[in-house]
Amino acid sequence: MEFEVQIVIGIVIFIVIILVAVLFLHKAKKRYPADIDLMEGRDFERFCAELLKRRGFLEVEVTKGSGDYGIDILAEKDGVTYAIQCKCYDGTPVGVSAIQEAYAGRDYYDRMVGAVMTNQYFTSPAVEAARKLKILLWDRGYLERMMEEEA
User: Fold this and answer.
1) Does pLDDT of 33 surpass 60?
2) What is the pLDDT at residue 68?
3) What is the dotted CATH code of the domain comprising 36-150?
4) How confident is the model at residue 28 (pLDDT cuts 50, 70, 90)?
5) Around Cβ 83, how many Cβ atoms within 10 Å?
6) Can you give the chain as a three-state secondary structure string?
7) Contact 103, 114 (CB under 8 A)
8) Residue 150 has pLDDT above 70, yes or no
9) Residue 31: is its pLDDT beyond 70?
10) Domain residue spans in the chain?
């Protein structure tokens, strides 16, 4: 009899563990799409804006899309204003032109910080240009860490 009770308790614990794992995966799946690499540009911009909101950014606004002077998101955090360029590429590293757009857009929108947010990584010339122009680079690794910190 005692052995049978231990088996039942073991089965119940196993089922609870499975249910917790399923709920955790379901919650994570609801928050983030299965693969950000498959998003279209505007969807990626909206995804990034929502991620920034959940990370404490305020007044997060996705710009109109055309005539935005290279800036896709305007936001503020801790009294610092941001102009953010989003790039969702299919395996291609982000080059210098994105840095130039963020630089020009930061000044156009009179923001304190310019940034480029991407699902990929940056070319060496882009990293060098960003360093000289004081543009933040939020690459795939940074984006993934932002998503993981929330889960």
Assistant:
1) no
2) 65
3) 3.40.1350.10
4) very low
5) 29
6) CHHHHHHHHHHHHHHHHHHHHHHHHHHHHHHCCCCHHHCCHHHHHHHHHHHHHHCCCEEEEECCCCCCCCCCEEEEECCEEEEEEEECCCCCCECHHHHHHHHHHHHHCCCCEEEEEECCCECHHHHHHHHHHCEEEECHHHHHHHHHHHC
7) yes
8) no
9) no
10) 1-31, 36-150
Strand arrangement of the beta sheet that strand 113-118 belongs to: 58-62, 73-77, 80-87, 113-118, 135-138
pLDDT digits (tens, 9 = 90+) for 52-85: 999 999 999 999 866 667 899 999 999 999 999 9
pLDDT score of 21: 60
Query: Tokens 């929502």 map to which residue?
Result: 50
91: its two tokens: 């395996």
As a residue count, the chain comes to 151
- For residue 81, give Cα distances in angstroms to 59, 64, 149: 9, 18, 22
